[in-house]
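Try it yourself: sequence plus adenosine-5'-triphosphate, in.
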Amino acid sequence: MINFVQQEIENDLKAGKYTEGIHTRFPPEPNGYLHIGHAKSVCLNFGLALHNGGLCNLRFDDTNPTKEDVEFVDSIQEDIKWLGFDWGDRKFFASDYFGKFYDYAVELIKRGLAYVDDLTAEEIRAYRGTLTEAGKESPWRNRSVEENLDLFTRMKAGEFPDGSKVLRAKIDMASPNINMRDPVIYRITRATHHHTGDDWLIYPMYDFAHPLEDAIEGITHSVCTLEFEDHRPFYDWLLDSLGFDVNTRPRQIEFARLDLTNTITSKRKLRQLVEENHVRGWDDPRMPTLCGLRRRGFTPAAIRDFCERIGVAKSNSVVDIAMLEHCVREDLNDSADRVMAVLDPLKVVLTNVNDGVEYLAAENHPKRGGSRFVPFTREIFIDREDFMEDAPKKFFRLKPGGEVRLKHAYIIKCNEVIKNTAGEVVELHCTIDPTSKSGGATAGRKIKGTIHWVSAKFALPAEVRLYDYLLTTDAQGNLPEDFIAALNPNSLIVKQALIEPSVRWTNAGTHYQFLRLGYFFVDPDTTPDKLVFNRVVGLKDTWAKVKDR
Ligand code: ATP
Ligand code: MG
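Structure, out:
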């Protein structure tokens, strides 16, 4: 692992800091499911700990009582484990530290560094100033320590209505950094918290709580996304003001968040997709959530590989989703067995084949080998796309009078095209060249095209779900503002497909390559009577092409 955060860690270690070891954390707010952007943060935080022989905590940053839910606490743990990381016995909840946060706030007041303010939220906003204008001090700013302690205690005791008072850090209303203009650190909210119930009527603000959570847990490197860069001065101010030793206390390091083309990485928008039923749920295979990617058939190895390859930078950029697809393709290319399936069946009658069945050996994997038998019969199905009546010269699949090889089987020739009254092709009559059996003595006869097929008699019906992006994006990867109106109506196409019988006893969670069609994953909707497959990705690798240019 070589990235600038690792570099910073090494610099710190060389400077004699953090002699107790490196300690990171992944701090999700349990208000949604983890998505591919979070995976970058998970891989980075747990990866840094592993690389430096340190530890990484899982911390639920649940200081906001109104938006959070246990459902998310469970899913987040499942997803991190699935990605392959382990927090050991260090699962923490920020809400467990509410008492400590309170004590630290009292300590700030005692040091003359925090005050109770009676300004309304609107007034506070108005007093804050702008980027070009200094802010204005609140008339309550110079309350005595005693008065502040008394008021803060009474805020906690519930003597004041919601929103009537706040506790603010006393820093500098003229600071060029607006985050340093006496930020609010506690507010009154009568809300039931999913972890602490009705114990608290006052809640700490994120910027106040986060550095303290880090310090309480002995975190050394608090890695977060770039939008917190302007908050770092307050992070440092708070810990320094409370007397934490600069050689051991946590430091914040910001990195660029992951944005992907064609991909929504806003929890709010993902939630909207679920709540308004634009998708089947958080684990809909079109969702960029980890549970969605898992259900689609993405592998943890592929996602970790992707997170490693995109690297960690200090400026934001948009990553081409083709790169993620490339990673999963590479992984599945090695691991997935090959089988044959037909998505748009077109019947082919092989007029010189009798009614029996011939079992043909078929290789399972080009590198790992292994084989199975596929039944070959007089009637088969091919994919409609592989036949063209008025074919251009370069069409090397089946056309009237033309020849093509059936994978693992014979070369066939198309002699007759049968149509219905509407003029649509419904059946082809072909003959096999019996001397051309795959692996046989004359099998080497030159023929340009090879197509997949299944036996009409033995093929199994299967529901195959083909996915496309939920959204199309422009070249910069910008999502349209009204993203609901821009949803791709063809993001899910369901096919009633036919698949070779070798997969009859397959299990949910198994990967295959359907020859020429892509990588597929057995969906949990599969039952003993019904096979359901998700297409993970097609075979065409647009990323590999970009890379080789
Ligand atoms: P919210 O707006 O609710 O805070 P969030 O996406 O930041 O949403 P968190 O639960 O706070 O969600 O995220 C947990 C961690 O994952 C944070 O450290 C956050 O910086 C990081 N993270 C979130 N989104 C991304 C992303 N797209 N790329 C990299 N890291 C991310
Ligand atoms: Mg966040």
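One thing you can check immediately is this: The two ends are 26 Å apart (CA to CA).
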